[in-house]
Each structure stands twice: as structure tokens, then as C-alpha cells.
Amino acid sequence: MATADPERPGFLLPLLLLAGFRTFIDDLHAELARQGHDQLRPLHGFVLQAVGPDGTTAGELGQRLGISKQAAGKTVDRLVTLGYLERADDPRDARRKLVRMTDRGHDGLRRSAVVFDQLRDRWAATLGADRVAAIENDLRTMTPANWFRLDVPGWFGG
């Protein structure tokens, strides 16, 4: 059954949600570039979050992101080259190599958090604080409790 409003077909809502997400993330990365993080990409934010404060292995990273160990390894290689990650021996198990964030990686995440707040404030200034809060509340109602998942790269990749 088609939607009753032909100007608001069902497929439009997810596309608008994706466009809003894309706009937010593009604005984030434009600002991060101005602040010296011009090589960070949207995928990298998921990777840095998945590495976490204690580090992880490439295999565990792949599982967290929903991608293969090989794909995780290639992404880690890129972020090591860019100075956001480093490989180190695991102090608890000499057979394992840990992937850890560098100071540059931590700085990128800290700056991202600040910019996200600034962008939310910009949306609130444009739409109104009540409307932005209502959007957030409505999305919380419609999404599962475990809505923040790091496996988006694997989900998008199929």
C-alpha cells in the first residue's frame, strides 16, 4: 500500500535521514580539516571509536566494524601512516600486536566531539532548540536501545 501523501513517499524518509547524517558529517570533516585533520575520513571515526582507549587487535577491530581482518588491517595501515594509530606489543601477551591511538588520534576524537556540539548548536539555531530536541526524542523512540553500533562500515559494505 502506498503512502497517503504522494509528496511524502515512504522511501523519502530514510533518504532524508541519510542526507541529514551526510550533511552533518561533511560539515564535521570540513571543520576538522581547518583544524589540521584534513586526512580524516568518516570511516576513520568509526575505526578510532572501535580501537578505543585500551587498543585492540586487527582481528578484533574487524569484528567490531563488521569487516574482514584484512580490510581492518589495510585501514589500520592507512591510519598508522597518517599518524592516528600505532602498533605495539601487547604487554599481556607477547604473541599479540595491539593497535592503539596516538596522541594525534586522541586529538582528532576530542576535536570531533567539540565540533559535533557546535554543529548541533547550529542546527538548533536554524531549526529551533525545541525542534532539534524533538527530532532526537523521536529518533530515540524509533531506534533500538543499542542504536550506536560500530559495524556500520561492514553493514554499508554488505
Please provide a written account of the structure.
A hairpin with a 2-residue loop joins strand 1 and strand 2. Strands 1-2 form a two-stranded antiparallel sheet. The chain has 158 residues and is mainly alpha-helical. The chain contains 7 helices and 2 strands, in the order ααααββααα. The model has no long low-confidence stretch (mean pLDDT 91). The protein has one domain (26-157): Arc Repressor Mutant, subunit A (Orthogonal Bundle). The protein is globular, with a radius of gyration of 18 Å. It comes from Micromonospora krabiensis.
Count of alpha and pi helical runs: 7
- Rg over CA atoms: 18 Å
What CATH calls the topology is Arc Repressor Mutant, subunit A
**Strand portion:** 5-15%
State the end-to-end CA separation.
28 Å
Number of domains: 1
* Assembly level: single chain
Arithmetic mean pLDDT: 91
Largest sheet: 2 strands, antiparallel
What's the CATH architecture name?
A: Orthogonal Bundle
Number of E strands:
2
| CATH H-level superfamily | Winged helix-like DNA-binding domain superfamily/Winged helix DNA-binding domain
Give the helix/strand class: mainly alpha
User: Which CATH top level class fits?
Assistant: Mainly Alpha
Low-pLDDT runs: none
Question: Strand order, biggest sheet?
Answer: 1-2
Order of helices and strands: HHHHEEHHH
Percent helix range: 55-70%
Shape verdict: globular
Keywords: DNA-binding
Protein name: DNA-binding transcriptional regulator, MarR family
Organism: Micromonospora krabiensis
Pfam families: MarR_2
